[in-house]
Amino acid sequence: AAMKHLPYFCRGEVVKGFGRGSKELGIPTANFSEQVVESFPSDMSTGIYYGWACVGNGDVHKMVLSIGWNPFYKNIKKSVEAHIIHTFKEDFYGEILSIVITGYIRPEKNFDSLEALISAIQEDIEEAKRQLDLPDQRKFKEDNFFHLPECKIVNNH
Ligand code: ADP
Ligand code: MG
How far is CA 65 from the centre of its chain? Predict the structure, then answer.
């Protein structure tokens, strides 16, 4: 169920999250709106994925992505958040984030401590970096999806 929809192309505005303090952990996550999240296949597994991401007309970077149960909605709705593996000069709320999800790392987990959570995320980031260097993954970085006008229909290729 995790892999069957991949590669998954998606574009939408970056909205305010629900302040889980991702940035304070050094791992900010750009959140998609509820509307974009609702457009995801309902049988796409929660968990940690990787792929490529681009803010506005900017460069394409590696990313790790979490599809998780959204505590703000008492875990009946999902949230989709991307940590882009790049240091940005400033926040980009309100900008259009384009992503392609190309691989799956692991299911959602609960952690006993903040340290355990942070080190798991660091491992996810290293795993994403390694996978995305492989030729079959690298090709998605060059996908036309990242270079075409926003009116392009997505997931219809
Ligand atoms: P929120 O709860 O509002 O999502 P976060 O602590 O998760 O707050 O921070 C997310 C915001 O940080 C993003 O919306 C974006 O504007 C900014 N940001 C800066 N660098 C990155 C990055 N490398 N990846 C994702 N978001 C980033
Ligand atoms: Mg966030």
Answer: 3
pLDDT in tens, 3-31: 899 999 999 999 999 877 688 888 999 99
pTM for the whole thing? 0.92
- How far does the centroid of ligand 1 lie from the alpha carbon of residue 91, in Å? 6
13 is catalytic: no
Torsion angle, alpha carbons of 85, 76, 38, 145, to 10 = 20
Number of domains in the chain: 1
User: Residue 97: nearest ligand to its CA?
Assistant: 1
Looking up residue 84, the CATH number of its domain turns out to be: 2.40.30.30
Expressed as residue numbers, the domain containing 22 is 8-146
Is 120 among the domain residues?
yes
23-60 residue pLDDT tens: 888 899 999 999 999 999 999 999 999 999 999 999 99
* Structural domain includes residue 43: yes
